[in-house]
Target: Tyrosine-protein kinase ephrin type A/B receptor-like domain-containing protein
Amino acid sequence: MHFMRLSFFMALGPTLGQGLCLDNAVPESERAFIQDGGGNNIKIGIFEGNWPSAGLLSELIKLLMEEVLGFHSEIHEKLGASGASPIWALAGCRDFDAAQYDQKQCGESETVMHVSLDSWIGSYSSLYAQMRKDHPTTAPLDLGSMGYSGEESVYVQTYILDEAYRSDGLALDFYKSPATSAVLGTAGYDVTHHNAKKHFSSIHAIPLNEMARCNETDFSTNARMYDFVRFSNDYDGMVRQDDGTYVAKCPDGHWWPAPACRSNHSECIPLFTAGNGWKLQAIMQWTVAYGMPVAVGISSTWGNYVKHSREQRALHYWWVPDSTFIELKPEPIVFPRHSALEWSKGDKKTSAVGSYVAKMVSSNLASKARSVQDFISQMTFELSEIMDLLLQVTQEGRYNVSCNWARNNVERWTAWVPVRTNCYAGFGLANDEGVHVTQRADATQCVVCPEGTFSEEILDETGKTYRCSACPSGTYQDKIFSSSCKPCARGSYSDTPGGKLCKHCDVGFYQALEKQTTCSACPADRTTRLLAATGEQECVCKATLIEKDGQCIPCDEESLWCPVGSTIEKLNSANGTDDANGPYVKEHYFTYASDPLEAYKCRNSLCPGGAPESCSGGREGLTCERCPLGQFASTGPCSECGDWLAVLWVLGLVLLAVLVVGSYYVFSPRYVAKASPIFRAQCSGDIAVMVLQNVGVVQVAWTSSQSLEVLGFTSLFVLDLKGAGISCLFPSPAGQYAGVVLVWPVVLCTILLANLCSRIPCGRYNLSWDNVRTVGMAGKFMQIGFTSMTNIGLMPFVCFMHPNGAFSMLTHGDILCGSAEHTLMQICGGCILVLAFLFLSACMVFTLLAPHWSSSDGTRKTLGLVNFLIRRFQPNAWWFGCFLLARGPLLSLPTIIAPDSAIMQLSMMLMVLVFSLCVQATVQPWQTPWLNMADTISVAVLLCLLAVSMGCNEIQCDDSVKHLSVALGIFLLVLLSFFFLLAWIGAIYSKVTGRDLEFLNLAKPIEPEGLAEGFQNIAQKVRAQEHDQLGKAMSDLCYYDLHSVKLAIQALHEAWNVNPSEKCRQTLSGRRICSSASIEDLDDLDKDKPLGEDAPRPPADDTDDPTSSGELEGNQVELMVPELEEQKEGMPPAAVVSHAL
Model:
């Protein structure tokens, strides 16, 4: 900031050529800028009103601020339209001349105008008061009067006054005529006594296009017109709108006629005003109150206004000081003395007060350039002085007039310049470089105190001044131009002097007092939720800890969500798992309200989390496993146990008993190498049951995220009877488990009881059951349920660990391992496992003995004991039934090996099924290609399903993985249904037509007669060949062809009972079931009778076809061929082969 040295101002000289007015003026390069709120350099903005006196004084203050005070300044290009304009302009209102208050756009940005002289705000005191109320921080400051008052009224030209007075004795500059009038005291414009109109022009002489339309000016502003009609009662001159507002009634859209000439517009005296309607309400009230025959109009432009007022014989609104009509010397019309009370109410029929003309600055100028504000506050002028200057402006221009005034009045404005080191509050002493100093002797200027400092008052021999001092520690100041520092609030601190802002206490710290330099730390296991904690009570437990009895204890992260500030009370009142700011039990976990930190893992989807003991689907109890008494459920919500359920259980048990007894009569103990279509259909059902049982076992390892509703029913195939309502019969889990375990003993006892009952004599009917067949039938039931038996038997021995260290059964999460219920279930499970072990052992022994039994006539009937295992498979793969039995326990073992890892369980199950699939695909054990294909494809799809399910974790599953699992599950069911239904369609077709469907054998059927002829051709060829030649021919065959020849020779040896040589026996070594094996007694067969094409066949009293009527089907021929002796050469070979096949 720069100030001119006042001692040089007396020496004046012409400097206009150099762009400066005063000698030793502050050059432009040394002038200072002020800063806006963003710290950017800006010039001091000067607001100029759109009237000559404002323009003159704006030019003068610009010159003084630049050349004397040393500041960059500029006059804003947008001129104010009225005396109210600086009120809004200096407050930063972007559209300060907008007609409506809410359109002025105030408070949107910092002001760019800071100074306004000759501000006619006296007529707008109410608006200024409202502005200070609405915008107290940005409303401009009134620095006092300019030293003169503005005068505004309706003026009449001097020559018109003289003419009226000379001709009629009328004093048109007074609202009443003189006392010499015919009627004492009547109005000079009163049409009943005088014709003042004859001295004026007609309104019709003014072109309408030079006049503003009423609806575009204050004639249509309700705030003005409402007060007018309220106090004048001139409702005839107004139009009431639909919304209750008023607008002036202008018949031609441009002129508003007063009542005195409203009936005859040609008698109206034109009265001009400008802008939006300067002083419009007062003018309208004057014309009504004093009977003036006037038509009020608003010139469309300033130029038209000046032209109309100069060229027309008319009245016009004007004010002083102003130079527009100064050479015409018009006179104001005198109205009754001003009534401040009436004007304050809005009634303006008295004369306008001498308008208060103010010096105004923006509210922030003191903080940016206090010396400028102090300088302006001292400025004063007289009205006559301003009028003389305005007259000079018309001849010399306002810059020259301003410059001459500054040169001629040095002493006058020098007194306005403040002392450089007399700082005011908000400022402080500084040297020429702007660096703060503490003593006046080192200072040359005053600058605004920046952030982090305050303006401190000091006294010296010169007087009072201020310096900028740093705020002490514990305080701060975030604003410039401040006289004090603020104490740091609670929760904050300042550890260094000169702080612009206090620092918030970090998380884990607090401060309960104000004006502090440090924060206190929370205890080690506690922290604060946010910054700026105000007391130790805000120190809460850290994340993963929870407060119990005033102590912070660890919170299990696996099962509980414990954010910062967790407490037992908040945990018990948790509402779901959506509020991450509060503690809750995580989904798939369960805790008791009495001990909410002891968490149990739920393998089902019925533990929604949230508050302790939360269960969905109406469940209750540990891990939400149980339904209330009298209800049951499988995986979904609980349902009521109704009477219908008891009826279904009774019907089911009766059906089971009938099935057990009836099975004896459809079960065949005979091994037949060639499967009939009906037997093929039965085996298709066996494959479907085995695959669904495997799915049921796999579901034990599946978590809630991996399980599939579409395969939920498969749990019935492993006797998981929860969905069947077993809890309605046995409320306790141990009772339910025992009831399932008893299924096998009950079935075996039922079979034994039926066998014994069949021996009771029944007249001439012999219903006695054969023991071998009975045992085989019992084995069949055991074989069907063996996978379920081992799976159920192992259940009590599979325990998984909860987060709290406790163990529960994998399939009954509410049974804690080691409890009394669990012990009882282990006893039951151990018993059923012993039964399963004995059965498996017997099956393995019988399977090993089966080839021997099948090769001896004396033991063939014993083969019926194991026929349920070997009947479905080829003679070479008779052992595959035992392999399938072992697969069931192997699928259940992973749950024992890795009970806490679903992925490990599924991985091991996957390996078991892969090994099983490899063996099955290699051996092709089933008797027909259709069955081999069905088994292979079904297990392969199950493998895919198992592999895809491993892509899910124990809690959640990706949507794409879940959708793929569902698709594979549905595909598996469709596939099993496809194989089963087509097999039975083939069986029915064969029964009806006597022919088999070709595609079910995956090839055309082989005709035995054709094979017989082939054998004859081969036999002839063989007889013609030497032994060495045959050996050479055999050696040329590939491995698979040699293997096929070996199997064919082995089958024919068995069919014809050929006793091979030692070398041949070594070549054909390999155990298998003899194709001709039968449990029938062959003693009645005439071994000496040659078998030809017409040889009779023994009747069959039992077949594997439950629809058989005692006669063997063509494709179920028993190969009961007697021993063939080599010497029987007369037997036709074709007949032998045909019979054998």
Remarks:
- Confidence is low (pLDDT under 50) at residues 1-18, 177-187, 1076-1141.
